[in-house]
């Protein structure tokens, strides 16, 4: 079907991107939508055993919903770790109460559907590493939260 209307897609017909730049993080991402195509992004992720795709974080504007398709994992949350398995739905609201990290703790690939609302610009906090990420127009920059400067500094 056309790019401007309803699309039916499958992980067998979408080439995944593969990221493995840092030891505990590795994933295959099947992007079903691209930024700017609508009000949300949709992707299927496949995490190898023992891996996570992103550090523990939360968004200030975007909400995320995960549907676990296969495998087992641990969802790290502000309230503690929660086990997840095929059939589970995880809703991560915007803000600190929605902080999360999904780790494959099983012996097989953890596969899940990820649906995110879009917020551009977006601010993402990484509480464990004390970083903040700012994304706008497809560009991302990361800073240490301790690098605060005064509003009029340098003006």
Explain this structure.
The protein has 155 residues and is mainly beta. The chain has a domain of 103 residues: Jelly Rolls (Sandwich). The protein contains no helices and 13 strands. The strands form 3 sheets. A 6-stranded antiparallel beta sheet has the order 1-2-3-10-5-8, with no helix packed on it. A 4-stranded antiparallel beta sheet has the order 4-11-12-13, with no helix packed on it. The chain is globular and about 55 Å long. The N and C termini lie far apart (53 Å).
Tertiary shape: globular
Distance between the termini: 53 Å
Gyration radius, rounded: 17 Å
Strand order of the largest sheet: 1-2-3-10-5-8
Number of helices: 0
Say what the CATH topology of the domain at 17-119 is. Jelly Rolls
Output the structural class: mainly beta
Say which CATH homologous superfamily of the domain at 17-119 is assigned. Answer: Jelly Rolls
Instruction: Please tell me the overall pLDDT.
Output: 93
- Poorly predicted ranges: none
Helix content: under 10%
The percent range for strand residues is: over 45%
Q: Sheet bearing the most strands, described?
A: 6 strands, antiparallel
Q: What is the level-2 CATH architecture name of the domain at 17-119?
A: Sandwich
Counted beta strands: 13
Q: How are helices and strands ordered from N to C? A: EEEEEEEEEEEEE
CATH class of the domain at 17-119: Mainly Beta
List the helices and strands and how they pair.
Elements (H helix, E strand, L loop, with lengths): L16 E6 L2 E7 L8 E8 L10 E2 L4 E7 L1 E6 L2 E6 L3 E4 L8 E3 L6 E8 L4 E5 L4 E6 L2 E6 L11
Antiparallel strand pairs: 1-2, 2-3, 3-10, 4-11, 5-8, 5-10, 6-7, 6-9, 11-12, 12-13
